[in-house]
Write a structure and sequence with these properties.
The protein is of the alpha/beta class and 145 residues long. It contains 6 helices and 5 strands. Helices cover 46% and strands 19% of the residues. The longest helix is centred in the middle third of the chain and has 14 residues. It is globular and about 35 Å long.
């Protein structure tokens, strides 16, 4: 049995989370969170049981804590834990926002990629190719491409 990728989907909209879970279920074990605060809790819990996420797909505009702030805190924790880049979680930001300022803020915070909503397999494949998210193995074993 091939190893499934471990994925965290973070979005405050129920339908967006559900659609993403259905999209990724064929090659990923999916957890979800409704805001950045819950995402941080899930991230820390996954590390505490030695089952960290391979990829976090995170919306930007959310209540309690937005995606960019959550990403900054994730990267700070990884730096403080002295994780090598290869061991760090890959983060793909998703948003309906197409403004340069928002996109550049996401990359400055440490994301590997950015997709304009809605998320599709085609957009994910393109992001994987452009931003080297490391998803090739999962796409191949799932018959995607």
């Amino acid at each position: 049995m091939e190893k499934k990728m471990k994925l965290l989907i973070v979005d405050d909209q129920f339908t967006s989370r559900l659609k993403a879970q259905r999209l990724f279920a064929q090659f990923a074990e999916c957890d979800s969170a409704v805001n950045g605060k819950e995402a941080l809790e899930a991230f820390h819990l996954a590390h505490s049981v030695n089952r960290p996420y391979d990829l976090i797909i995170m919306d930007i505009l959310m209540p309690e804590m937005n995606g960019i702030e959550a990403l900054k805190q994730i990267r700070e924790w990884e730096d403080n834990s002295q994780l090598f880049y290869e061991s760090q979680v890959r983060v793909l930001m998703v948003s309906a926002m197409e403004e340069y300022k928002t996109i550049s803020s996401s990359f400055r915070a440490g994301c590997e990629g950015y997709i304009i909503k809605p998320i599709t397999i085609d957009k994910l494949i393109k992001a994987n190719t452009s931003f080297h998210l490391g998803l090739d193995e999962y796409f191949i074993t799932s018959g995607i491409r």
